[in-house]
Each structure stands twice: as structure tokens, then as C-alpha cells.
Amino acid sequence: MTINKLHYISQGNTPKEHLENIQKACQSGVELVQLRLKNLSEKKVLIIALEAREITSHFQTRLIINDHYKIAKEVKADGVHLGKTDTCPTIARKHLYAWQIIGGTANTLEDCKILIAKEVDYIGLGPFRFTSTKENLSPILGLDGYALIIEELKTTTPIIAIGGITENDITEILKTGVSGIAMSGEITREFNKIKVFHQLLNASSTEEQLYNFKS
Fold it and tell me: pLDDT tens for residues 107-142?
């Protein structure tokens, strides 16, 4: 199972804004969207998730639901992303369809090892730098943090960098060995940049992917 190199994490002051931004991201060519709604009832999240699934299906974009694995199953999203205080991936796996992806959040080498043991499909590792989109931020990793963790792990599980990443960071972050990046604010500010981000991410791909990229 391949994990997309660019993840858009939904943003907005209201659920409606989240949906509008997801639509804009899909129109601009993003291939994976994570619906991340906080402080809403499960009932409300389900309603928004159904709409998000409709939008992403239209564009054939992958949809990941943050936290709510039962909703991910109900709306037939492509998977779920579980934070450190959310449900254990092993429990979520029992409920989900076999084809659904599970991602997990990590901040340390130890977090990564635990998630790998629980057989997640990818790890969102961060934060790269300070970001205002997340409360109670964990210690900043920076380029050295990623390089050290990836060197130590030697894993085939894709590592997705997250946390305050901008266009100018992409090339250097990829040199640490991460598989891709997750962005929120940087994309929401300018959806047209998605094409640029894809080019930067594909430029460092394997030859096989480069070959597909040119065709």
C-alpha cells in the first residue's frame, strides 16, 4: 500500500469552512485529505465526514478521518489518523475494513517504535517547528530530529513530517529520509501551491516514480 507524499490537514473556523477548504484542495490536485475537526459532537463530525467523503470521492481524493475510527468506517473513508491520546491502533484495526489505512502521531523515537509494533500504515512525526494550529505542542524536532529518528528506526513504515512546514523546507526535510509531508496552514493560505509541493516532493522520488512523473 503506497501512502501519498502530500497530506492536507483540513482547516477552518467552522465545519463549513473545513468543507470549502477541502473542496479547494481537491480542485487544486491534492491526493489525500485528513478531516481534522476538534471539539464537535460525534453526530456533527459524522455529518461533516459524509459531506467530505462526497467531495473527495468526486475528485478521487483519499480521505482520512482524524480520531473517529467508527466514523471512518461508517463513511467508508480511506482510513483514520489516531493521535497519541486517541484509540489504540490495534483496537481500531479490529473495527475497520481490511483496506482502510491507519496512521498514528509520534513525537519521539519511542512513539515511532510503539506505532510500528502496532502495525500502523504510516506515522505522522512532528512537530518540525512551532505551529499555532495545534495546542499543547510537543518538543520541536527540526531537521536533526528527523534525521536521527529515521536513521535509528530503519523502517519501511512511511514517515510523514508535520508541523509548521513551508515550501522552502520541503527539499531539506526530504533529505532526512521522510516519505512525505503533511501541511495545513501553508496550503490553506494558497491552494495553488499544491502543484509546486507535488513537484518538490516528486523531484526526490525513486527513478520509477520519476519515470511516471514525466509521462
Answer: 999 999 999 999 999 999 999 998 776 666 678 999
Instruction: Give the phi and the psi of residue 24 in degrees, each rounded to 5.
Output: -65, -40
Torsion angle defined by CA atoms of residues 16, 35, 13 and 130, in that order, rounded to the nearest 10 degrees: -160
Burial class (CB in 10 A: 0-12, 13-18, 19+), 157: middle
CA distance 126 to 78: 22
Residues shown for the chain:
215
Per-residue DSSP letters for 113-160? Answer: HHHHHTT-SEEEE--SS--TTSSSPPPP-HHHHHHHHHHHH--SS-EE
201 belongs to a structural domain: yes
The phi-psi region of residue 29 (left if phi > 0; otherwise alpha if psi is between -120 and 50; otherwise beta) is: left
pTM for the whole structure: 0.91
Domain with 85 in it: 6-214
Q: How many domains does the chain have?
A: 1
> Domain with 56 in it: what CATH number?
3.20.20.70
CA distances from 78 to 60, 129, 136 (A): 11, 28, 28
Is residue 1 assigned to a domain?
no
Rounded distance between C-alpha atoms, residue 209 and residue 62, angstroms: 19
Report helix, strand or coil for 202: helix
Q: What are phi and psi of 7, to 5 degrees?
A: -115, 130
Q: Taking a C-beta distance cutoff of 8 angstroms, is the pair 100, 65 a contact?
A: no
- How buried is residue 143: exposed, middle or buried, by Cβ count under 10 Å (0-12/13-18/19+)? middle
